[in-house]
Amino acid sequence: MTASAVTSLSLHPVLLLVCVSTRLPTHEVLESTGRFGVNVLGESDSVLALRFATPGIDKFSGIGHTSRAWVPVLNDSIAYFVCDVHERLPGGDRSIFIGTVRQLGLRRGARPLLYFGSRFSHLAGPDDALLRAWLEGPASV
């Protein structure tokens, strides 16, 4: 699934918070296995995010991935976290899963894909702001 609500919760112990619709098959898997993974996608991965948001398809068909502690980790993710479910809380039509991070990986220098205002975007770095100001002319400086 593609999650729009994932956040760090604690550093000691390292905990992540993920919100999952109670109607998704992923919800049942989390409840039965007690484990989940979070793959952080890069800024050019909007097609992959849409694929994992589409119900009823084999999301992993043709997608490079490995298994870490029985959790799929995408080869192209810029970071990943493998978590054991620490706690599950009700949250309306979602469940709030709090996971204890057991494994993680990071690809340095990559920037994350963002979702805001019903569309995908990316972080603008200091160089991007400087270039934009230069292209817009003196009035914007």
Architecture overview:
The chain is of the alpha+beta class. The chain has one domain (6-140): Pnp Oxidase, Chain A (Roll). The chain contains three helices and nine strands. The protein has helices at 25-33, 46-53, 126-136; strands at 6-11, 14-21, 35-40, 65-68, 71-74, 79-91, 94-106, 113-116, 119-122. The strands form three sheets. A five-stranded antiparallel β-sheet has the order 1-2-7-6-3, with helices on one face. The longest helix is centred in the C-terminal third of the chain and has 11 residues, at 126-136. It is globular. The model has no long low-confidence stretch (mean pLDDT 88).
The run of helices and strands is EEHEHEEEEEEH
CATH topology: Pnp Oxidase, Chain A
Please summarize the sheet with the most strands: 5 strands, antiparallel
Number of continuous helical runs: 3
Which regions contain 5 or more consecutive residues with pLDDT less than 50? none
CATH-level-2 architecture = Roll
User: Which range does the strand content fall in?
Assistant: 35-45%
The neighbouring-strand order within the major sheet is 1-2-7-6-3
Number of domains: 1
How many β-strand runs? 9
The CATH class? Mainly Beta
Helix content: 10-25%
**Radius of gyration, rounded?**
17 Å
Annotated CATH homologous superfamily: Electron Transport, Fmn-binding Protein, Chain A
